[in-house]
Protein: Succinate--CoA ligase [ADP-forming] subunit beta
Organism: Methyloraptor flagellatus
Amino acid sequence: MDIHEYQAKEILAKFGVPVPRGGLAYSPEQAAYRAREIGGSVWVVKAQVHTGGRGKAGGVKVCKSEHEVEEAADRMLGRKLVTHQSGPAGKMVNRLYIEGGVNIAKEFYLGFVLDRSLQRVIVIASSEGGMDIEEIAEKNPDSIVRVPVEPAVGMQAFQAREIAFALGIPGAAVTEAAQTILGCYRAFRDKDGTMLEINPLVLTGENHLVALDAKMSFDDNALFRHPDISELRDKSQEDPRETQAADRGLSYVGLDGDVGCIVNGAGLAMATMDMILLAGGAPANFLDIGGGATPDRVAKAFRLVTQDKNVKAILVNIFAGINRCDWVAQGVVKAVEMTDLKLPLIVRLAGTHVEEGRRILAESGINVITAANLAEAASKSVAAAKAA
Ligand code: GDP
Ligand code: MN
């Protein structure tokens, strides 16, 4: 789960990470009021959206007066912000964060991720902040330092200082930098983060450190033990298809092709997508109905897939172990009748109660193309989508 910048900063501040003074605004008037509250003569108006690259897309505006703050807020609110990371649909701007301006002397990059091959939290830092880490890796790979953290003891103070030295942070600010890095690490660890990115981490003209931007993502499977994090969820920033599915106990991943896929199990979903690509088509999504799918759940899955206007054909591919083909077949029949399905439907069933499942489909009278194996199912789906 992702959260907004201002929410991440609130969490980080509790772990001793210095952040600029700021306040949330839902309207231009409120934005101007926030600026007055913060004081000073320079403010930054920042669109709160779950995506990076806001600066280049007009989602971050430095302002010199309350009037400018109000105008910038008026331009951003209620519009979709399209950045190079957001995808073409963009993200709706409903909230703004107003911050006091910071006198930037130098920008650094600081990130925390889980390195799966090392099975460790790894700190990634660079003296070249402000641009994307991908761009840094391309333009100045030597500036990147990587420090794995030993999980048994956690991050040590010396490691944080070493990172600060590697970044070339001046002596006067090293203690503050080490505190900042350690604070970020603790927030990441204690809250079960999967990603934390401070870009840029800024050295001010007065030799202080400030986290000027903050992005944080959390492990969905650990949210049950962090109610404070769960409640930060903002559904307006998520793919509505994926949110609807998750709320119904299904996992849905939206893609760009035209074959809708209803499968059981992530591994089978991958294989199904590979086979569709091999047959010359492209999947519109994959929807995992999981194990023990009842007819009702299958029907819900159908409703989700048919809501996607890109879908030209539906492929149901079930390898039933825990699942039962007869239940899936019942669900398919129910769904086709309920949704009055007009799209070509291709079904491949294998495993538990397969004979019964095939019989249900055959006797139902619904219009269904059956396939004996996955290769056949994939090529029939691609052909049907192309013909549509
Ligand atoms: P992102 O583009 O979504 O990553 O948004 P950021 O929060 O990183 O902002 C983009 C850029 O705006 C930063 O890299 C800074 O250069 C600039 N910026 C943000 N806040 C301030 C500020 O308080 N003062 C100044 N001068 N620039 C800022
Ligand atoms: Mn940034």
